Amino acid sequence: MKALAYAAMDTQASEAVGGPRVRIPFICAANERRPGGDWEIGRVGYEEKLCRRSNLSATLNTPWPNSPELNNYPIPSQGGILSDVVVVCRGPHDRYDRLDSWFDLPVVSVPPTRWPKLKNNGHKYSFAEEREMTRDKLRGAL
């Protein structure tokens, strides 16, 4: 995760002059029906891998304090979930070793456009509506 290394360098530079820590959010393709998707049974998507390395599943499952919502699921097609502090405590998915030092990062979980029709060997959307839906999802996450 090069973004984490860049954030660490930016944080050091910021803190050296009395500024705050730099936090770069991770935009994660999310299962719209279940927190963490099928992370407990070994699926290998980004969300599932991050759930096995962190507390992401717990943060997805828990609405913000004082929220009128009782549950974050299902995620609306144009919605997402901000998990402001996801603590990563295990290494990459090849072994999931415990990390000596833990770190946290914000994660924005957004359900992807499901099975969009593509053309030109998968390089372009066939339908403008699906392209716009994907753009709207990314804009919302940003």
UniProtKB/TrEMBL annotation:
Gene3D superfamilies to which the protein is assigned, alphabetical: Leucine Aminopeptidase, subunit E, domain 1
Looking up Pfam families in the UniProt record yields: PARG_cat_microb (PF10021)
Output the InterPro entries linked to this UniProt entry. Macro_dom-like (IPR043472), PARG_cat_microbial (IPR019261)
Q: Where is the Microbial-type PARG catalytic domain?
A: 23-84
Q: What is this protein called?
A: Microbial-type PARG catalytic domain-containing protein
Q: Which organism is it from?
A: Fusarium falciforme
